[in-house]
Design a protein that fits this description.
By secondary structure, the protein is an all-alpha fold. The protein has 3 domains: 16-254, Hypothetical protein af1432, CATH 1.10.3210.10; 267-440, Hypothetical protein af1432 (Orthogonal Bundle); 450-541, Winged helix-like DNA-binding domain superfamily/Winged helix DNA-binding domain (Arc Repressor Mutant, subunit A, Orthogonal Bundle). The protein has helices spanning 12-26, 33-47, 52-64, 73-80, 83-88, 90-93, 97-104, 113-148, 153-160, 182-211, 219-232, 241-247, 258-273, 282-296, 301-313, 323-326, 334-340, 343-351, 358-364, 387-401, 413-425, 431-440, 457-467, 472-479, 483-497, 502-511, and strands at residues 10-11, 255-256. A two-stranded antiparallel sheet has the order 1-2.
Length: 541
């Protein structure tokens, strides 16, 4: 199960580009909007003669330009009802008074008239100042992420000026004209041009560039779009956008080693968790819990690393769901539930195009699946759910219960543990995964019948199957682990019990009462022994 990321360095471009797909969804845009925007910005940069070093700044600025806009989604939803719908109107109205007027019409959306009126009064008293400060915060937080990812000072400066305008009427408003970094100017116009082109073709792209020339946009860049839009935008719909963007990275590709990758993934995880005050620190805590649990279960260290990294990225898909849903204190409606059920799938979509990160998405997409088939997004059951996903699902469920949610306070540790064990009895969560997670969280685990010679519960399971003549491959299928992991367990078992073959292992098992009365014969099924799926439920968060 070892990740491709452990075999060769991951390109930073892959991580940032994956994150950009979630930013797209947060703006109500289809995935790859930011990637296409990046290609447009690079074409413009080449057209105006920027050198390769400056084009590298343009590249990362374009990918990160809107990355801070979800960080106050909670406040956006509080005032305007749907933070994603709010952000999407920027492309229709542009910045300034038209967008401000459209935003005001959304105050209190989704609430009864009287409640909307009350929110309007509160907004008049304190909300306007809060909203005015939001965009400044977006830029500052984007700079912080760029810094944590080890990007250059030039990228940090440009990202911090992402909302400045040519005429000086942007945010925070301290810059105008050529004082705005060229990378920010290129990213800004490319953002709007991409949407206009996608919706209305080259003529629409020219129109948006001309209408804001010398105001929002650098007049020289508007002129290039107006005069050479056909060439700048040619073939944009025909290229494989992901590969084109990754291959277009100027200068030497920025690679991150194993330790740097962990730091970068944790930085991104913390940044994504800012979307809601109820999820702060969630991904990092789940990752640590799952990694510790995997180690207790005897997973090879490379698999533990992959599991921990999957924990860090498991929440990326949350960016595509409105905080009107995540932060709702009341029960969710059917349509809202359907959106929630999509977020693991969105995580997988965001990671699947990267060869290095796709293995993490393959685990993360299953964390809300349940053994009885009651989970989501695909309703998988039994052995269709991988062992790492079972561990990650148990860690996520436990950690979520220990955190506050808009509809309940945090659960005490003992109650959370009881709830997790109830899910095992109901046939929804894996017993071994839950025990390992609870042990990692500091809970005492009820004793099981285990073997002498210091055999762990998992080693006892493997020993039973070895004694019955199962091959490593058959054991792997039975226990939903890799054949390599089975081999590691077998080696440890033989060393502990002083046996060298199946017969010696069988004798030890019989002498110590480790063979249950009923046992499956080799090749009679791939499910975990004694595991009977039962009806159940899937947790909201």
């Amino acid at each position: 199960m070892a990740s491709h990321a452990d075999r060769q360095p991951v390109r930073l471009a892959e991580l940032v580009a994956s994150l950009s797909l979630g930013i797209d969804l947060g703006f109500g845009q289809p995935m790859e909007h930011v990637l296409r925007q990046c290609l447009i910005a690079l074409r413009l940069a080449e057209r105006i003669g920027l050198d390769e070093e400056t084009r590298a700044v343009v590249y990362y600025t374009a990918l990160l330009v809107g990355v801070g806009c979800h960080t106050d989604a909670h406040e956006q939803a509080k005032w305007f009802g749907d933070d994603i719908a709010l952000k999407s109107i920027k492309y229709e109205h542009g910045p300034g008074r038209p967008m401000a007027a459209a935003s005001m019409r959304m105050i209190g959306s989704g609430n009864p008239p009287l409640h909307r009126f009350r929110i309007g009064l509160e907004f008049a008293l304190s909300g306007r100042r809060e909203v005015n400060e939001m965009i400044n915060h977006h830029a500052a937080l984007a700079v912080s992420l760029a810094q944590q990812l080890g990007l250059s000072d030039a990228v940090q400066e440009a990202v911090g000026c992402a909302y400045e305008q040519w005429d000086g009427h942007g945010w925070p408003g301290g810059r105008s004209g050529t004082d705005v970094p060229v990378a920010a100017r290129l990213s800004g116009i490319s953002d709007y041009v991409e949407v206009a082109y996608r919706m209305g073709g080259v003529d629409a792209a020219r129109d948006v560039a001309r209408s804001r020339q010398g105001k929002q946009f650098d007049p020289a860049l508007s002129e290039v779009i107006s005069d050479e839009g056909e060439m700048i935008l040619s073939g944009l719909d025909d290229v494989g956008t992901w590969d084109a963007v990754i291959d277009a990275e100027p200068a030497l590709a920025v690679a991150v080693g194993a330790d740097q990758l962990d730091e970068a993934l944790r930085a991104v995880a913390n940044f994504v968790d800012l979307k809601s005050p109820y999820s702060l620190g969630h991904a990092g805590a789940v990752a640590d819990l799952a990694g510790d649990a995997g180690r207790r279960m005897g997973m090879p260290e490379a698999d533990v690393t992959t599991l921990r990294r999957a924990g860090l990225v498991h929440g990326l898909g949350r960016l595509g769901i409105s905080n009107a849903i995540w932060d709702k204190p009341a029960a969710l409606g059917a349509g809202e539930w359907e959106r929630v059920r999509m977020h693991p799938y969105l995580t997988e979509r965001m990671l699947q195009q990267s060869r290095s990160l796709a293995p993490l998405g393959a685990i993360a997409v299953q964390l809300r699946e349940r053994l009885d088939g009651s989970g989501y997004p695909r309703g998988l059951s039994g052995t269709a759910i991988s062992q790492p996903a079972r561990v990650l699902g148990a860690a996520d469920a436990y950690q979520a219960m220990r955190e506050p949610r808009p509809y309940r306070p945090p659960l005490p540790a003992d109650l959370a543990a009881s709830e997790l064990r109830a899910e095992v009895r109901a046939g929804r969560l894996d017993a071994e995964a839950v025990d390992a997670v609870l042990a990692a969280a500091g809970h005492r685990i009820p004793g099981r019948r285990s073997g002498a010679a210091g055999l762990t519960p998992r080693e006892v399971e493997v020993l039973r199957l070895l004694a019955r003549g199962f091959t490593n491959k058959q054991i792997a299928a039975q226990l939903v682990i890799s054949p390599k992991t089975v081999g590691n367990h077998a080696e440890h078992i033989y060393a502990k019990i002083g046996a060298t073959n199946r017969a010696g292992a069988a004798l030890f098992a019989m002498q110590h009462g480790l063979l249950p009365e009923q046992q499956m014969a080799p090749g009679t099924g791939a499910g975990k022994m004694g595991q009977t799926p039962q009806a159940g439920r899937a947790a909201r968060s």
